[in-house]
Amino acid sequence: MSRLRKSFRLKVTLSFLLAGMLPYLAFSLLSLFQVKGIIEEDIRRDLRTKTYILVHEVTEVVQSLKENMAHWAGLSLMNDIVVMDIDKRIARFLKEVKKDLGFKGYIIVVNNRSLIVASSDAELIGKSFSLERFPEKKFLRLEVPVRASFGQKQELGSIVLLYSWDNFANYLIDEEVVTSLVNPELEVVVGSRGLSLKSFAEGFGSDAKYIYYRARLSTAPLEGWFLVVGMDRDRAFSPLYSMLLGLGSSALIGVVAIVGASLFVSARTLRSVGEVSQTANYIMETRDYAQRVPVHGDDEIAHLSVSFNSLLEEVQRSIRELEEESVRRLKLFKKLVEIITLILKQEDEQELLRVAEERLREFLGADVRIEKGAGGGAGYEIKAHVFLGEALEERVVGYIQIGESLPEIDEFIKSVRDMLSFQISRLNLLKFQSYLKEKAESASKAKSLFIANMSHELRTPLNAIIGFAQLISSDPFLPDDVREMARRIEVSGKHLLEIINNILDLVKVQAEKMKVRPQRVELRTLIEEVEYMLLPALKKEGLTIELEKPSIEVRTDPSLLKQILLNLLTNAVKFTERGSVKLKVEKRKGYLKFRVIDTGIGLTEEERSRLFRTFEQIENPMQKLYRGTGLGLALTKELVGLLGGEIGVVSEGKGKGSEFWFTIPC
Amino acid sequence: MGGVIVALLTALAVAVGWAGDIVFIVSKDSDIEGITLSELRKIYLREKEFVGGQYAVPVNLPAGNPIRKVVERKVLRMDREELELYWNRKYLDGTEPPVVLSSEKAVKEFVRKVKGAIGYVDEDNLEEDLKVIYRLKR
């Protein structure tokens, strides 16, 4: 629909139609109305005329009958009424007359005593005359008195003519018009039926089918009768219909002619426009800008085609230029990428500059050089961070010099220059990094070695101190206070030894001296050994220990696993006054999970986060009660890490116990 | 001359089968008792309308009737031609000829019904309720 609305042809056609048909329709309507008025006037005149003619005819008929009767009444043979028409002279006469007149009805002669003396129809003779016998509805009754032709001309009786109403049908016509003789009071209709008997009045009227005129008859004895002449509406207005048909068909011809003409004109006009738009569509689909629109004639539409072709020419030229330009740029870009890739591959600064110079020369021409050093050159300055023994420093490392600088390659050279700066800086940064790393690693290794050596140095005299203190404390001959002092030396020494052992282990791990030696391990056996080793520490009152010992074979380093379990269990026992310490082992998919659950003092969240750090121990009022370096958990974490597992802690809070867990792969 | 005529008429009457005289009749209860030939002639020619105070209505038989012919000849003493001339003249004055009835029977009926009516029939057809006021010999 909207496409139709947009159609130029439709617009042209509609305009032509509107301009052509509106006046025609107006004229047609006016003519139709006028013709209708004329026809109506004609019909009325016609109807009235016909009616009057018929009224005249009917009246004439009756008049002529009356005259005839007057004549009969004057005949001398009517004297026979006196002798009851004894010789049937009157009867013969009447029969003859009726035959001559040829109508439907009766002529009778009645004497003064209402006895039918003679009649045109023999069967009536001798009967008494009454109106019931000849109802008004059926007969027009005309009566003429008969006087004697002798004497004082006294009345002998009368001639009565009973004239059937049907006779009038002969005078009524039923061709162009329908006519009837109607007596609405008697409800008698002669002639055409179908005319309503209701509301009868003189004048024009119409119903569904007819237009009619009604005239009241005024001459005796026809008072009360109407003559109706009606005309079939369709028939009456048939000239109007044929005129309508004529107008309609000529309108149709007009429409066809207008549509045809406007389509022809718009098709001619639109051909060029269509070609322009077709060409445009073709070009949009195929990108073939070489296409041109054919030019017809030299009118405004032709100018459109010419202008369109010029536009195409211009577009084609611009596109060609754009294509050439982009090819050139693509080449430059490819080269740039090539050079950048090459630059990034170079690991040596001097080699880098040499290769870059070579490639640039190859691509841009012989007059490209890269001058090294900061010594005041001209051209594109290459700045980079350079590693100078101890630190990085930004300085000019060289210049790209070019014979003739073109604006198109300016950006290209700048990109290459920036890339050179970047790569040189990167190489120097790498140098600086490795210098820093080397420096840091050597310091760390030295520290570890030192501590490891120191631990050995510390352990040897400490063993001697502990050994001698044990000796002294177990000598029964020495005084008790001395033995007590020796015992304290022994305990403190053992504690110190423990610390030193831990430090040693930790350092070993950090100095990467600890070696992992995996082998098949029976978990039950391993845990039984741990339990055995724990026995001295477990002799604490009010504390129960439950260790789960599943029969699982696992491939791991048994000594490290044993040490982890020992550390965690010892720790748990240390921090649990009463209650229980449990070890649970769960086999999960791909790893074993060990959980050490105690009912000890527990941990706050803050404490949990600091745990496992080197030299960290829970700070609390009971610190003195629980001795420790805090190294144990840090070491344990390192060991778990060596076995390829993870460690963590869960606690409900302070005083609610804690659960340490770790995993090892299996 | 008269004898000859009577003889001839008698012969004729015998020849056609009529034997009797012609009688002029009125209703039995009519006031008219008798009439002269001259009176009768005047009445039939409509020259005289009243007979003894009574309006007279003469009745004829149809034109070709033999009895009527005798009456015309003997009473009116005119032939066809003379009568036509006479009545044409009379008609212009507004006087109509006598009522014509088609048969003796009708005449008798008419005379019975109409007061003052005078008709004529063959004597043989005479009926009791009729009064003869003149007898015409054949």
Which keywords apply here?
heterodimer; A: 666 residues; alpha+beta; 5-stranded antiparallel β-sheet; 5-stranded mixed β-sheet; 19% strand; elongated; B: 138 residues; alpha/beta; D-Maltodextrin-Binding Protein, domain 2; 21% strand
Question: Nutshell version of this structure?
Answer:
The complex is a heterodimer of chains A (666) and B (138). By secondary structure, chain A is α+β, with helices and mostly antiparallel strands.
General description of the model:
The complex is a heterodimer of chains A (666) and B (138). By secondary structure, chain A is α+β, with helices and mostly antiparallel strands. Chain A has helices at residues 2-6, 8-73, 89-101, 233-236, 238-286, 300-345, 349-364, 407-473, 480-510, 523-534, 558-574, 605-610, 631-642; strands at 105-111, 116-119, 139-147, 155-164, 177-183, 188-191, 203-206, 210-216, 226-232, 368-372, 380-388, 391-402, 519-522, 543-547, 553-556, 579-588, 591-598, 647-651, 658-665. A five-stranded antiparallel β-sheet of chain A has the order 6-5-9-8-7. A five-stranded mixed β-sheet of chain A has the order 14-16-17-19-18. The longest helix of chain A has 67 residues, at 407-473. Chain A is elongated and about 220 Å long. Chain A starts with a helix and ends with a strand. Residues 615-627 of chain A have low confidence and may be disordered. Chain B has 138 residues and is α/β, with parallel strands linked by helices. Chain B has one domain: Periplasmic binding protein-like II (D-Maltodextrin-Binding Protein, domain 2), CATH 3.40.190. Chain B contains five helices and seven strands, in the order αβαβββααβαββ. Chain B has helices at residues 2-16, 37-44, 66-76, 80-93, 104-113, and strands at residues 22-27, 50-51, 54-55, 57-60, 99-100, 117-122, 130-136. In chain B, strands 5-4-6-1-7 form a five-stranded mixed β-sheet, with helices on both faces. The mean pLDDT of chain B is 84. Chain A binds chain B through residues 76, 79-80, 82-84, 86-87, 89, 149-152, and chain B through 55, 57, 96, 98-103, 105-106, 109-110, 113-114, 116.
